[in-house]
Specification:
By secondary structure, the chain is an alpha+beta fold. The protein is built from two helices and eight strands.
């Protein structure tokens, strides 16, 4: 079973495949933590603060190659904050972190539960 990781850092796109969910999550976290901070974006009609901009988006899809049964990821904002999500490219449901968790730990917890039902390997949070 293969897990695909896609990380978009500005105009650059990094893709990789991993045999285990744990490896895919480690790669996703490592790449997303490299996201640069952004400054305020001033347009003629509106100003976007760094917290309103997505500086990087990391996605995990798997375990099937063509029709992934699980899709999830992390959006890293321009101020460095991160939000984990599950769902599809069109409809995303945020994953709320529990006390003491960051976005990456919350994603691991959510995918551990989902991957258990998909017949894949488990990931310890």
């Amino acid at each position: 079973m293969t897990w695909r990781v896609t990380v978009r850092l500005g105009p650059k796109v990094h893709r990789s495949s991993h045999e285990s969910l744990a490896d895919a999550l480690d790669t996703l976290e490592g790449r997303c933590r490299q996201a640069p901070r952004r400054s305020e974006a001033n347009l003629r009609y509106r100003t976007f603060s760094p917290g309103e901009q997505v500086a990087a988006r990391g996605e995990i899809a798997g375990p099937n190659r063509l029709l992934a049964s699980i899709r999830a990821g992390v959006d890293v904002r321009g101020d460095g904050s991160a939000q984990a999500w599950t769902g599809s490219r069109v409809r995303r449901e945020p994953v709320d972190p529990q006390p003491g968790e960051d976005a990456y730990a919350a994603l691991r917890r959510a995918l551990s539960a989902a991957a258990g039902g998909a017949g894949s390997d488990r990931v310890e949070p």
